[in-house]
Records
---
Amino acid sequence: MEKVKDKDKEQLNPFIYDLSLEQIQEWIKEQGEPAFRAGQIFDWLYVKRVNSFEEMTNLPKPLRDKLAASFRFVTLTELAKFESKDGTVKFLFGLQDNHAIETVIMRHNYGNSVCVTTQVGCRIGCTFCASTLGGLKRSLTAGEIIAQVVKAQQILDPLDERVSSIVIMGIGEPFENYDATMSFLRTMIHPKGLNIGARHITVSTSGIVPNMIRFADENTQINLAISIHAPNDALRSKLMPVNRRYPFADVIDACKYYIEKTGRRITFEYALIGGMNDRPEHAEELGDVLQDMLCHVNLIPVNYVPERNYVRTPRDDIFEFQRVLQKKNVNVTIRREQGHDIAAACGQLRAKHMETTTG
């Protein structure tokens, strides 16, 4: 019985990835260890990318034992892996509490991009998204988000390739898990960590206005993308219930504040849904709202989700929507689809896994 208690206690230990370099330095100081040990630990985590404290061979054995007694590594168990014809690889990872998350490695001509998840499930309720099926279970810790990128890099290491960019567009709303997301981002861009350029990272939000303001004030070069999906309040509230909490006009005002504060261009993600938000009049209205902003619109043909009743916008209508925006002098592109043959819509693998495990 005592062993079970010890095991439960061990499970409460924080993840080592949850700690910033500064926090590791503080812990090292508390242990009475030389200050340089913190840099060694950080190097083992993010440059050498080991999976256990025992592998940190230039640390004294007593220090490795202290680390093992105080912290734990994030365990990502590969539950499923799908590889697309275009090189996209999608993983379903099991967490230590039996929840599942998705992580995607996307190959581009400019390098490898990783799409990470920030929550187990999502409570935003976008009607075209599989991530919201089953609601929100919990938020991930910073370490659980970090572990997804480390895992992706470990997969790429034997190929002598590296993660060159990150998109925070997986399951969940990053700005409803703001502190963990920001901790994750700081570790990703740290020069002694994975050292990924801030301008090669994009965080996407459905429009959590207070944290959009906080993000603008962070004074970072990390890119911001907004899931907008409609040109007005009525339609956006129908597609995205979060719009009732943070109305369209408030989201646009927060975007303008971000642009004014940072001088950086903002990206608007617009999922085109057949017969719902993809008519020329929608494009006209959207163009009127955005034409004077420093922005870019990314048109996304909606992925088919069996649990939803939406259909894809015909190809000609997609190009017409683009043309209307261009006439309004709005910078616009159509997203190149990746992983279309492997249930690429965010949350689809997890939804299938939930059906299997609960059905």
---
Amino acid sequence: MATPDTPTPPTASVPATADGNRMSRGLTLLFAVAGGTAVANLYWAQPLLGFIGGDLHASTASAGWLVTATQIGYATGALLLVPLGDVLDRRRFIPGMMLCAALALIACAIAPSLGALLVATTLLGFTTVSGQLLTPLAGDLADDTNRGRVVGTVVSGLLIGILTSRTASGLLADAAGWRAIYFVAAAVSLAFALLLSRAIPPVAPKAHLPYPQLLLSVWQVIRQERAVRWTLFLGATAFGVFTLFWTGLTFLLSSEPLSYSVSVIGLFGLIGLAGALAARRAGRLHDRGRSMPATGWGWAAVVVSFIVAAFAERSVAGIVVAVVLLDIAVQGVNILNQTRLFALAPGARSRLNTAFVTCNFLGGAAGSAAASVLWSVGGWTAVSLTGAGLACVALLVWALGRRGPLLSARSG
């Protein structure tokens, strides 16, 4: 496969790291926690949709567009900013993006109306890309035998951040109002900006390309390797059904007959946390050459989880089972997809991650938007059946591609 940075001298595609700069357990943990706190910014509003809507005199369905706006901003930031990880000094770039995210969080906290909050959350999504810069950096610093484990740990941190954000958001909103969570998140973002500026080891840029050519090279790598295209479709579908489920679940838990408070709704994120911890081992399956069959089992589990959810509209126990199963499956599939992509072009991991994250969050934005529409039309049943149908499509794509289009000489 031709690399997407062919104009670059051969030595520029290799990160200048010594053995002492590779991913230690401590640095891996820091990347995971910092990335998790960053990506949590995208989901503070999700369990608070009814709360925010009431405070800003808008319907819950209208407030649901906050999640969509944030994800659109995130997908745009991933497309325009994450490729710069291959050409800039990430020791400065990543903390700088965390500082920008802190400013956007403050704008969210002081937003006077739903329209202003929509603008602020879009800017928050655009600037909250540090987690997706840390993931390919971890892949660069890890050696070949441990890359799946390291990337799996960092990605699990991002996923755990998504899930725990709902719990933290609900509890803090109940105690101090929904604006408080954005002020606290801004302070946390500033703290990690300082920590990472000191902890990230020096790594030479892997390419020297003008910005327009850098963006063009993202599309080049997609066009040149069909395994990338097929994997991007599976990734976008996985994240789409994930946000479809969680946005719809917020509507279900906040409406009659359950009518849970925002703090109780947030606690459901802790249930999904068990799935994130279990999915952490998915990267090791890649290291052992089991990536492809494990992806198929993951999609089968997604189908089952939505079927369980469809019959659990009035059963909290059934919802808990669906949450755990869905999170294990989706997060495992996500880690396996991302690790396989990183094996395709070591000199362009940030750009591969750009394609992966952009497609994922476009899928996520579509999923959250669809949840609002489906809830208005057919409630929880419509949400669950749509999720099951999309998962069946993805399972079919996996079955067709597992012996050809999804395979690469360098993927597991």
---
Amino acid sequence: MRTTVAIIGAGPAGLLLARLLDAAGIESVVLESHDRAYVERRQRAGILEQGTADALRAAGAGARMDREGLRHTGIELRFEGRGHRVDFPSLTGGRAVTVYAQTEVCKDLIALRFRGGGPLLFGAEALAVEDADTDAPRVRYRHEGRESVLHCAYVAGCDGYWGVSRAAVPAALSRTYERRYPYAWLGVLADAPPSHDELVYARHDRGFALLSMRSPTVSRLYLQVPEGTRAADWSERAIWDELDLRLATDDGGRLVRGPITATSVTPMRSHVHEPMRHGRLFLAGDAAHIVPPTGAKGLNLAVGDVVTLARALVAHHADGDPTGLDTYSATCLRRVWQAEWFAYAMTAMLHRDPDATPFDDRLQLARLDRIATSRAAATDLAESYTGLPFD
């Protein structure tokens, strides 16, 4: 099989790239190792930056998001029993975020691909990217029990940290930067109306907590837990009791409880692979970078990558201009490192390190107080949270 762009991975990055290329008349084939049901139900991010929401609308994939998504114009930082709201539009010239789950983004993009796009092969496991540094790269893959080869002009590696794309960049040319955190997130989905109309980020002496949501009837909540924790170690009652404690305010309000339908534990780490391009192979999303989830940047960085890549491929296809392709890695990495900084800063400000001293605790509280009392500090947070430009 032959195509112009081989896209490995049918997460939001690969699917959006395929949609953008379809609109420009550029052929692509999407290979996804899992089945469609898995892709449409795996729980991941749920906060879309302004630029991500705008990119989905421009791609014709924003109609259901605009009907069912929740537009949020701020977040609450909660510490020492009090909350402080950061108002995004007043600090950023009108920008906001949208609560709309990654699963729903994938459903919308899959439906559009099947309605009028190129091939999307589920259960197609990419085995290797070969000859990426030549004019004729190819992807070996296994589908329906048969091994095949996809010949192409370009490869977009949107297959995550454990995929084959990143491994195709020679070790001698690669640089990796990583930070691991000594704690994790216990995440739960609950059939309970959200207890607040916006996200609440809480710093507590017992550890971080986050109140989020997936819809007006489903809450998404997180607790900082020790690294290595198993979800089974926590009973439903213990989870709700700990959330109540860490999210408590001086007015005595309590969370709305309901049945917990899913639990998971997410390790916390930062990772960047440089460069994001090798020959005609372009890495995007988790294949190139991972951020701790505190800043809600993972999905949004992936979208930024593929928007940048699509523009570069379209320019080269239409005018023969290779500039965007040549500068792809440097362009994306500028945004990636800004997001890495923001996610790290949010994580360090809100989480309790197991080795923290009273001095460290006071530094966290001082930073939170600065954001609550300084427009400049609040603006810096709001601009990063709602998203830096893709270009």
